[in-house]
Write a structure and sequence with these properties.
The protein is of the alpha/beta class. It has helices spanning 2-16, 54-61, 113-116, 120-132, 147-158, 185-192, 208-218, 233-241, 247-253, 273-278, 293-302, 309-321, 327-336; strands at residues 20-26, 29-35, 41-45, 73-78, 83-93, 96-104, 135-141, 165-168, 178-181, 198-202, 223-229, 254-264, 282-289. The strands form 2 sheets. Strands 9-8-10-11-7-12-13 form a 7-stranded mixed beta sheet, sandwiched between helices. A 6-stranded antiparallel beta sheet has the order 3-2-1-6-5-4.
Amino acid sequence: MINKTFSGLFNFAKQEKAERIVISRSEKGHSCHCHLPGGEEAIFNLPKKLENDLAENLRALLKIAPGELATEKYCQWRDKNNDLNFRLSIVPDKLGEKIIISIIQEDKKFLSLNQLGWQKNDLELLNNINLSGSGLIIISSPERQGRSTTLQAILNDLNQENKNIYFLGAEEFNIQGVNFLKNTPENWSRILNHDSDIIALEIEENDQESLKRAIMAAHTGRLVLVTIKSINSLQALYQILRSGLSLKLILDNLKMISGQELIPLKRMAFKDKKKRSRQRQQIGVFETFIPRPETIGFIKENYKHLTTAKFWEDFFRLAHKNGYRPLIVDKNQKKKDGLV
């Protein structure tokens, strides 16, 4: 029964190009919210027969340990009607557990960085780093604010026949020519012992070991691209500086930190739902921090005060003088251009 129900649910999600499915329990039973393109939502109740141990039954179907509180866990569903990849979260809720299924759209076309919202000056800075072929690039954003999409766009640009690119993570990027491996110590050793030019990975929150490996890999002369969760690029810088590695090693290899968030695009309103669903609904606003001699010197001289508010107030002003522009600057520019 539960297998048939989830198969039907996933088939509906596939046909409607649903972005997310949220199943939660209320006093009236389990309700399912399907988030569709264009901000539409389909809501329906699940059969009462499924109410007992719904999350546990789903865990069993997906071969997840009983009671595991999954967080953005990469999963696959394969049957005669569906071939679906998604990220699963099972979290405590008021009346049990909430199930959150984030669908990975396999047929999604890659947008260029320009289409995503990168400004010309930032693109030139990024291209110069990419041409150098080595160093650490950090792509940061809050949760669900597009950092994976930005990473895919950069990898798509870098993907050439003469480049050996590896992506380390839980989910395979569908980019032809990019090698996929799970993020394990054994696979890190494997790619560092072989002819790898570019390494990309998505770092989960508080995964300091992967961050350390990324910095050390950049020190070997490779180009390393990393996504991390943070409010902005300066908070991402704080995380990197607190990684536990030597300050010299970090500052010698860090080339760029980008920060971003998504905001609604100004679009013509279509009455037809199908036309509205095909419209892009959001665009990114971006900021980039490039370590300059002045900011590097400030960090070295004042590192012992890293955790103080004054350090970051002074650092912000200095970074601003040396080319750093916070997210609000790009947001205001896009408003001026009539995009948002």
